[in-house]
Amino acid sequence: QVQLVESGGGLVQAGGSLRLSCAASGRTVSRYGMGWFRQAPGKERKFVAAISWSGSTTYYADSVKGRFTISRDNAKNTVYLQMNSLNPEDTAVYYCAASKYLYSNSDTNDYDYWGQGTQVTVSS
User: Fold this and answer.
1) In what order do the strands lie in the sheet with 18-25?
2) How far is CA 96 from CA 25, 29, 59, 90, in A?
3) Per-block mean pLDDT, blocks of 10 residues, the chain (124 long)
């Protein structure tokens, strides 16, 4: 089993930045693809970014491309999401997820483990 715990969320003004962290425990996730998703109130969970097991390949939703950066530190069993140029449309609960596929993607069905989420609120 893999436990994922997100942190780093909060309230930020439009144009600001936040860095989310996802700490894994239970077993190493160095052989897992990892992803970030978000869910706004009343809306379905949507893909944000994914990173391959080695970190060599990344994949972003069009809405965050150029503003968000996903990275990982396998030695620390942690995945990050650097979010810049935030706008109110980025307000959501952000979830970290782990996939047994080495190269994960945007499909929630490909992910096996999920964190509890961290709230990000961007004020205008």
Assistant:
1) 3-7, 18-25, 78-83, 68-73
2) 13, 12, 14, 16
3) 96 98 94 97 96 95 98 97 98 97 89 97 96
Q: What are phi and psi of 90, to 5 degrees?
A: -85, -5
What are the angstrom distances between the C-alpha of 90 and each of 4, 9, 30, 53, 114?
22, 12, 28, 26, 20
3-state secondary structure of 110: helix
Distance of CA 111 to the CA centre of its chain: 12
d(CA 79, CA 91): 20
